[in-house]
Amino acid sequence: MKELSDHIKVHINGEHTFCLNQRIMSRYSGKLKKTIKQQNNNIRVEIHEFPGGVDGFELISRFCYNNGKIQITPSNISILYCSAIFLEMSEKLSPCNLIQKTETFLQGLFYWSWTDILIALKSCEYFFSCADSSGLLDKLIPTLLSKISLNSDFNLITPSSSPSSSSPSPEIVGINVKSSSPTKAWWFDDLTILSPKIIEKVIKTMGCYGNNNNSLILTKFLIHYLKRASSKMRGGNGLKSKWCAEYAGLTDTAVHGVVLMGKTGFSCRGLFWVLRVVSALGLSAECRSELEKLIGGVLEKATLDDLLVSGHSGVGVYDVNFVLRLVRVFVDGDAVAMQRMKKVGRLIDKYMAEISPDHNLKISKFLAVAESLPDNARDSFDGVYRAIDIYVESHPTLSFEERSVLCRCLNYEKLSLEACKDLAKSPRIPPRIAVQALISQQSKVQGEAPLSESSCSPFATQFTSSPGALDSDTLSEYSEAKEEMKVNLQRMQWRVMELEKVCIDMKNQMSKMVKNKSISTTANNRAMPRLC
């Protein structure tokens, strides 16, 4: 009975129960000694949130049962140190207790290898709070940064004149980056094994967290780290939300760095790539807005592939609102040069042709894209017409009125002769729209519209550059084109008249049918015998 009373059952984190000798465990652990006294004769002790869980407590038990001896290595130093702090294994209870042994081992951190430091930091992610509060991270992280500094082209600034309670000693307050820093440093891949909490702690130790991030090399590392993290993301919305919460601080820090470096640190394509990476892990509305402003300012350097960002399920194949925001930023910029404006005009025309087949794309959204640029952004509206033609063909259920509304974004005077011919022949375009286009084209050829526009007709350049040097072939070609347009215009006018005549005939026939049916019904009623 006495033997049983000398033992205590310790239940760890609700997972496993250890049956241990009270006297042996109380000899090394101040926390267990006090708990056993408070429990009186109760032989069961519950311990929650023990660092390292069951495996950690098993190591502590072995240390106690082995007369305070255990092999300490970089792979178990973190769990032993945090467990010793948690169980109050100090010198007051036993000389050379576990706290002293682990602190002595940590004093040789400077001589650890790069791999040893990573292993020790990696093990801290399972009991991060304890590792942080115990000061273990404040010992490991500066050593990690010093290893990077000694083998890289930048130096850590030390010391600080006003250290804070959360800063390591010596304090790491920033990084000086040389212009020759590589796109991907040697340590980028190695640090991707660390959890977001530890990376966040590293950045805070450097004083570059959030809007304090002024380091190009750190910003590039964060983007690399977030890219790796996004590729590992799996599961449903619940798991994704959890991941986004863990990485929120890192994504915002990365974006702050990108915005600060701006065009000097990242190309236009690089900015789009950054946006894709950080969006996959969640991004605050403020940071997204800042990044979109930066991208919108260099929109003329973008390509069609850059704009083709996937949309939300059920809304559309592509995120059209994103492109509209970029165009708005570009157009609202200060004194946008006409050359840049026309580059964006050509880009948006390509984008419209790409999104037109999307069955979920509404007419209002299509028009918003087409009308997002001023009229002078396009020398020719042929691209807009092609996009309309694709849209109408891909949406065969559109009504007559909807097709007319869709064409309101066209500037008929800026349609080429070939585009105008195609429009006039197209059965998908309402006849009245075709007539308007042909009238505008005829007015342009006759000189009622300025002939200086390069897109007015194939002959505009010849007319404006050397009006007195037109040869007979050019005049003949011009006359043929003019005559062909007149014929097309007459055909369209006859087409409209024929359609109106058909409508009137159908209306008269319907009236006659209704009248005849009424007369027939009345006659039948009169001829029907009455039933008594």
From TrEMBL:
State if Coiled coil is listed as a keyword: yes
Question: Which key words tag this protein in UniProt?
Answer: Coiled coil, Ubl conjugation pathway
What InterPro entries does its record include? NPH3/RPT2-like, NPH3_dom
The membrane-spanning stretches of this chain are none
Look up keyword Coiled coil and say if it applies. Answer: yes
Question: Coiled-coil region(s) at which residues?
Answer: 475-502
- The source's domain of life comes to Eukaryota
Q: Which residues form the NPH3 domain?
A: 185-444
Q: Name one GO biological process term.
A: protein ubiquitination
The family assignment reads: Belongs to the NPH3 family.
* Stated name of the protein: BTB/POZ domain-containing protein
- Organism of derivation: Thalictrum thalictroides (Rue-anemone)
Q: Name the lineage.
A: Eukaryota, Viridiplantae, Streptophyta, Embryophyta, Tracheophyta
